[in-house]
Amino acid sequence: MSKPLEGIKIIDFTHVQAGPACTQLLAWFGADVIKVERPGSGDVTRTQLRDIPDADALYFTMLNSNKRSLTLDTKTQEGKEVLEKLVRESDVLVENFAPGALDRMGFTWERLNELNPKLIVASVKGFSDGHHYEDLKVYENVAQCAGGAASTTGFWDGPPTVSAAALGDSNTGMHLAIGILTALIGRGQTGRGQKVAVSMQDSVINLCRVKLRDQQRLDRVGYLEEYPQYPHGEFSDVVPRGGNAGGGGQPGWVLKCKGWENDPNAYIYFTIQGHAWEPICRALGKPEWISDPNYATAQARQPHIFDIFKTIEEWLADKTKYEAVDILRKFDIPCAPVLSMKEIADDPSLRASGTIVEVPHKERGSYLTVGSPIKFSGLKPEITGSPLLGEHTEEILAELGYSKDQIGKLHSAKAI
Ligand code: CAO
Question: Given the CA of residue 44, which atom of ligand 1 is nearest to it?
């Protein structure tokens, strides 16, 4: 099966998570992604949080599948020359170094554009160009705090809380991938490359859109009716942390199921969608609530919402999370079990769909990773293991026209 991005050559100058997540996605869809790494050490994640001595860590293998690895010291004159050759032959260069690092290496946008006017140069930074924090180095949780996610996540009586979901890293990488694909289509129209820049702060803010919605509602009316603070608690002038409340117009909460005393994940998420109220009452054995004016409308229910959740928990007390969902799905109630990573790893549906895949690796044997969350009718992304450090150096240099002798000289100069 041919892949849509086949023929697109990408210089992958990325490290850690935000950049690698972007280029990995493009590699799944057929791009030739050449990961350029410092000789001897490579991407720092190769050695971070290792679970097998001397083998690439899962942090690396799970973000760098389907790529080739080229070791190159781009601070040596010989290394710079190799990179220049590669730039002339590539479609995209992706990087997520600290601000200014690429310029210090001698590869400014102007220089790259001069070497190859068709090249798309895509960057992740912590903050956008011109921002008063533009010089900062940024990791995941820094971005979640600067992007409004932390101030609005967690419980009202606890501190700002970060999410386990990589809103700052992988999410930014996904934004960058959209930018690159857009620039590739743009290049088809103009024949020219361009700079594509995504900041981690902006990408988090983009996902916190509904919280900016809430800030404006709060400014106007002084309360937020879907938050647990309404109607009994106090609102200040900033969007509060709402615990597990549903963020849209449908109230919801995480509710205990059978076994919660010993299993930290024996819970379901339960959503009270307006049209499902009647079936919910029937399922709970509370038919009198259907016409009770204190419960009949969403507005009437809001002051009693935690009493309602308590009643639902009493109903759930003798049901496992799976049994509960199997009953509630028949009533068209939006709900799901709270799944642990262990349950996700073993889930047969996720295995069958290719979302959780086991891939071979030269050092590790095999490992589990997350496959493409995007499903196509005409493409089935095949996930391959991540490359060893420098595994493809000679192959890539030969493709660039280097002879064995010249490759030997690059070795002697410690450029590869
Ligand atoms: N050959 C020679 N030098 C290389 C090289 C290569 N192949 N690859 C990288 N380098 C050099 C860089 O040029 C840089 O050198 P200078 O500091 O002398 O200019 C140096 O290695 C280190 O790069 P860095 O500053 O990007 O790395 P760091 O570990 O200090 O910082 C990070 C890491 C992530 C904080 C920083 O890169 C950053 O803020 N990136 C932008 C935001 C981002 O993507 N963060 C998400 C990371 S995922 O959690």
Answer: 29
pLDDT 10s digits, 294-351 = 999 988 998 889 999 999 999 999 999 999 999 999 988 899 999 999 999 999 999 9
What is the tens place of the pLDDT at every residue in 151-187?
999 999 999 999 999 999 999 999 999 999 999 999 9
DSSP collapsed to 3 states, the chain? CCCCCCCCEEEEECCCCHHHHHHHHHHHCCCEEEEEECCCCCCHHHCCCCCCCCCCCHHHHCCCCCCEEEECCCCCHHHHHHHHHHHHHCCEEEECCCCCHHHHCCCCHHHHHHHCCCCEEEEEECCCCCCCCCCCCCCHHHHHHHCCCHHHCCCCCCCCCCCCCCCCCHHHHHHHHHHHHHHHHHHHHHCCCCEEEEEHHHHHHHHCHHHHHHHHHHHHHCCCCCCCCCCCCCCCCCCCCCCCCCCCCCCEEEEECCCCCCCCCCEEEEECCHHHHHHHHHHHCCHHHCCCCCCCCHHHHHHHHHHHHHHHHHHHCCCCHHHHHHHHHHHCCCEEECCCHHHHHHCHHHHHHCCEEEEEECCCEEEEEECCCCCCCCCCCCCCCCCCCCCCHHHHHHHCCCCHHHHHHHHHCCCC
Where do the domains of the chain lie, and which CATH numbers do they carry? Answer: 9-206+347-413 (3.40.50.10540), 252-333 (3.30.1540.10)
Q: 125 C-alpha vs ligand 1 centroid, how far in Å? A: 11
169 is an active site residue: yes
255-284: average pLDDT: 94
Residue of 129, 137, 167, 200 to test ligand 1 pocket, by largest number of atoms within 8 Å of CB = 137
Residues with CB under 6 A from ligand 1: 16-19, 36-38, 72-75, 96-98, 101, 104-105, 124-126, 137-140, 169
CA of 208 to the centre of ligand 1 (A): 27
